[in-house]
Amino acid sequence: MPVRRAAHAGSWYTDSGPELSRQLDFWLNQADLSHGPARAIIAPHAGYQYCGACGGHAYRQISPVVVRRIFILGPSHHVRLSGCALSSARKYETPIYDLTIDSKVNSELEMTGQFEWMDLDTDENEHSIEMHLPYIAKVMEDYQSQFTIIPILVGSLTPDKEACYGRILSTYLADPQNLFIISSDFCHWGQRFRYTYYDRSFGNIHQSIEKLDKMGMDIIENLNPTEFTNYLKKYGNTICGRHPIGVLLQAVQEILRNDSSQNASFKFLKYAQSSQCRNMNDSSVSYASGALLFE
Questions:
Q1: Do residues 117 and 165 touch, judged by C-beta distance below 8 A?
Q2: Alpha-carbon distance 177 to 276, whole Å?
């Protein structure tokens, strides 16, 4: 089984382990532990100069001492997928240390008949999962031999498919030793993204974008998958991780249906934009970090 290279190191983030480690430490220290220990987080996947600081707020909520398996759900940017795909690699390289893939969980997921496998090229071209690996390595540093990862590439799912994967993964989400990382940026705004929704009643373009994103974030905090689907239909907001988010919301609902003693609470902790759009020629990408707790 192959080892997946850190294909975006040296461009999207530094390929120097010590420098990367310092950078991640700095961002984690800038954030407060206010909504942990997280069972799941939503965090961005752009170049670290744009979203590294924002991501720290989600990763700060993780309690590494309890975590044994980390599921990473990232949207597919390069290949058309109607379902979800697992990694055929054995290890994922990072500049800090390598992460080991959980072949046992991969086998369990394969047996559901709902997962395909991504080839190494697809795996290495995709950044949505890779951008989380250094943060995982950093947060789990003191326990690096005690955990495995399960990377899942998520395609363009129908609401029914989101519910199907939510049901499958809910068993794992219900276990406090498992952590779910949902990889998503928020609004991609501008002509180059073919998305220029602008409600002038909110002021500048960047304020309208923020209002639109916050509307979606509120729905995610309410943990309502149907409302989230309807919001996306209505506004077309270009949230690239909408399907991984949909799967998470469905998994949470499945847990709550099966166990009335459980309480789930999701909270966004940080919001940022790559730049502030003021005219129709500008463009920006939004980032949000949040954490899910079960009480």
A1: no
A2: 39
